[in-house]
Amino acid sequence: MLRIEVTGEDLARLRVAPDTDPLWEIVLSLHLLQNRQAAVVFDPWRREVRAALARSGLTEVTAALTRLSPWAAYFPDFLTPGQGGGGLAEGIEAVLSTPRRRLSAELSEVYAHGPVPPGVRRLAEGDVAALERLGRALRAYHAVAVEPYLPAMRGAVADDRAVRADAALRGGAAGLLESYGPSVALDAGALVAAYPVARRLPLGGRPLTIVPGFFCVVAPVVLADDALDPVLVHPLGPAPGWLARTRAHGSAPPPVSQLIGPTRALVLDALEHPRTTGQLAELLRLTASTASRHATVLREAGLVTSERRGNTVLHRRTPLGDAVMNGGRVGEDVAGGGR
User: Fold this and answer.
1) How confident is the model at residue 17 (pLDDT cuts 50, 70, 90)?
2) pLDDT in tens, 196-235
3) SS3 61
4) What pLDDT is attached to residue 166?
5) Domain locations in the chain?
6) Exposed/middle/buried for 255, CB within 10 Å: 0-12, 13-18, 19+?
7) 252-335 CATH
8) Alpha carbon distance 254, 277 (integer Å)
9) Is 227 exposed, middle or buried (0-12, 13-18, 19+ CB in 10 A)?
10) How far, in Å, CA of 269 to CA of 280, rounded?
């Protein structure tokens, strides 16, 4: 069980990362390739990624990365320096800048009960060539195992942020934390979560950052070293079939783009689930004013409805919008059948 004591001041300092973190996703996805957790949700991804890694000649590179970060009770913190929302280049630079003493200590912990492989030993010694190889390996693995799935990851983050924002508006910081249940619970002045070992994480006046993790499954994850800035990575929990849905939509604009334009088609496609203007902007990498303008045009065409909720506007696709996106005959989709 993981236990994080939180005071009222700690709640005021709580931070939710705006996006997943590329280094955390690299490490957590490596763990998924080493186990069978969440098989229904992630086995299609496992099959696809293993085949893609083999085609790309990255099977041995991936094996080398798993030797650095095994699926075990301990894996080194230096591989996950980010706190969400950072870029890949920035994260890799932070990894490669890890002091030699820390590299040695953390990698020695990984192999506390067995011999250290030669490649890992050179990295632990701070060998420049070994560090450069690590940087290339992280970039190559990310390009195959993580980057192709960013649209699905961004959609999951946008949906998650909608839930967290609503919880925070309704119940403040305590309501926000309660919204992470059942994986995380607020109990008698502490955050508690299932964990492989008994663990207490003292905040010591430092802000806790909650980072959404697409490849995080079963339970939240924290850094092993209490002295590092505290991070809690929580599972986003994509639904079964997420990969098939991603492949069905693809990265190209839907066919209806020929009728209403590519960006507007992507907005209408994103409204398969209700979203605020801000969530649309974040998901599609648009400015808020651009997302609002497209939503207004779609609303005037009867494809979208919009409802103001406090300082936000929630957009929903109408039955007519569903029919347009799904390629059905409008009369049938809206009226529910023939004459």
Assistant:
1) very high
2) 888 999 898 999 999 999 999 988 999 999 999 999 999 9
3) helix
4) 84
5) 2-16+151-235, 22-149, 252-335
6) exposed
7) 1.10.10.10
8) 20
9) exposed
10) 10
